[in-house]
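Sharing a chain and its predicted structure for anyone who wants a worked example. Both blocks are below, sequence first, tokens second.
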Amino acid sequence: MKLSSFWKGFIILIVFFLSIYTVQGQALNSWRAYLSYQKAKMIEETPDGYVYAVYEGEPAGLSATRENGSLLKYRLTSNGEEVQLLSKVTGLNDVIISQIAYCPDQKILIIVYDNGNIDLLDTASQDIFNIRDFIENNDIADKSIREIDVFGKYAYICFNAGVWVLDIERKELKNRYIQGKETYSVCFWGEYMYAATNDGVYRANKNINLLPASNWEYYPLNYGGYDKAIRKVLVFKNQLVFYQPESGVYRQESNGSISPVSTHPNTFNQVTTLQNQLIMLDNNNIYFYSDFTPQPEHTLANANTLYISSLNNSDTYWLAQDGDGICKIKKSTGEKSNNLKIDSPKRNLVFYMTHSYGKLLVVGGEGFVNNHDYAGTFMVFENEKWFNADEKAIETETGIVSRDFMCAIVDPRDRNHYFVSSYGSGLYEFKDNQFVKLHNDINTNGALKSALPNESFHSLFVRLGGLAYDNQNNLYILNENAIPEQIAMYSATNEWSSLYYSTLPRVPVLRDIVLTKNKQKWINAPRPLANHRGLFVIDDKGTIDTSDDISLFSTSFKDQDGETLDIVNFNCITEDQSGTIWVGTNIGPIIFHNPKQITTNGKFDTCSRAKIPKNDGTDNADYLLNGVPISAISVDGGNRKWIGTAGAGLFLVTPSGDQVISNFTAENSPLLSNNIKTVTINDESGEIFIGTDKGIISYTNLATEGKSDYSNVYAYPNPVKPDFLGDVVITGLMKDSNVKITDLSGNIISQGTSVGGQFSWDCKYQGKRVKTGVYLVFGANNDGTEGVVTKIVVVR
């Protein structure tokens, strides 16, 4: 059959567009996790050549135990390294991983989370089976896992209140042994099952019912140590081996005699058996025992190894290393290879984030009356690369501990110049990802003040909060507990000064400062003390001279219905595109529609609450998020509000707040946690960055900032291939454009209004996918200007 000239031309046109249009972007409504992969803590090798590694997530505090977190899958192939970062986005059912263990018999990786949730990952099919029995068991408050010991098709999950038996083949929890005793490990020797507990070692005959506590007997070990401190029991060469930290490793023969294997004075990171060897590792060496000899058969000097695994080769071992990721090492030569370091956040600590000038700035501290003592965490994400500040090096240079970073900001004159505030040591300055200077109460002409100025350690109490630049490039810094000035300014000419307002109560906790379009400054004081909580507003009349400033502070507000609101916490502030002020409180969001009138009239006691109509034929309505503690509010390119909460997840609401569009929770989405700390938006791409108490995750949103013209409009993905089933996004539009999509004949296929600067199309017409062809996108702004702004190629 011959093709007509029309169809010949059409095919040539399609081929042409397929050759030039290769635009891609992050898919609409997709999630992406940004978790820490810096310090590997555990590793397991599988028969197919993969290794799975767990990485430390964050330190819960300087004196607390470090939490584990993220999971990585890795293999070296003929085509290079294969790396996959596993999270809720890829199908896991929780976030903070406490322990993993591999079952060779079933080819299952057992993943147990800090809350008791369990995933079984089939390493052959990659299917994940979730078991929630443990997490839903209400009689166990603390589900902290000590170890997982695998024997055949059973896994014995040792935790603070006994041992739970997991039938891996049947994928179910079966029995619970030694109830009420904190159990660290178990093993089988002869006819008995042994368990190391906080009350010493217990055993029971494995051929009888192990459920009754009466069938377990205390098993004394007369080795001269403190048997309640035994943390590991295992079997090697048909002898019972046990380990007490800071005492050593011992063995008991069948005749009952006990002798030391290693009287190591320090604590081993791991004592295990691999490849018919007894292996111990500490912070400096790996010790291999092929028999009970006075000295190890082989020793490898390797610092900071926390975990070791080997399954496929008796000369090859995989190491999880503190600070150095994972690597492979040969026992015979000590040669290391496959050193894998992942570019990622340093920690899963996040308190505040901001996205500006193409950069995501993250700090991970906290301070509320007192320091939280979180390590000085400052991270920058730009062009798919992470910069992580080295707080140890900064401490060495300054002689002052770096703790509790609270806020960060980009200098509008230099996008590679940042300032970071801390709750204790002052203001840190960075340039080109290098630390430059610490500004504190000593070197700022008294502008920055210590909360304890008369103490010898005064420079450890320079407590700073929010940061903001005005349109003249002056930097404002909130200085908590400073007397009498509690706001400092670092001018565009690098001069320091203090701002004093008699209306601001003495020594409150000051958290955020927002400089508004109408030349006001809004500051929230979140501390729940009656005289110290509230909102502070300043009208500076567009100058840095404070002599004629108008300032008001209020602790109590009534809503539009005259109801006095029971607000205990004023948690966050933001200004939307229309100049309206939104404040997050413990009872939900409150709104100030005409903020200029507050300082004009000198009356600061009335606010509004958004109402959602019931649509039941009456005028009745519910207050938006009434009674829900609000922790963060961010505004997208469509003036919609993304509202983070303390416990209820993330809400997307309409610009006026009269409708909830979406509510993302940890239960119905990949959201890492329902406890949201901070939210910020990349206005160019629409990516919503969500900081939770378990790390950072993002969601790709339709709304972006509108452009000034149609000169840089494009669609993605483009071309639209047959296997793509999502929405095409047209981006780079003017704000709230009227969009039409037509075929080449001018027939309207789809139309609507852009959300900010973007519009989406499902590639359908009257419910069915459109035919292969070229489709034209037209955009019109409010004044009616219209033109062809881009083309979309669809291949069916």
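Comments welcome. Helices lie at 5-20, 391-398, 595-601.
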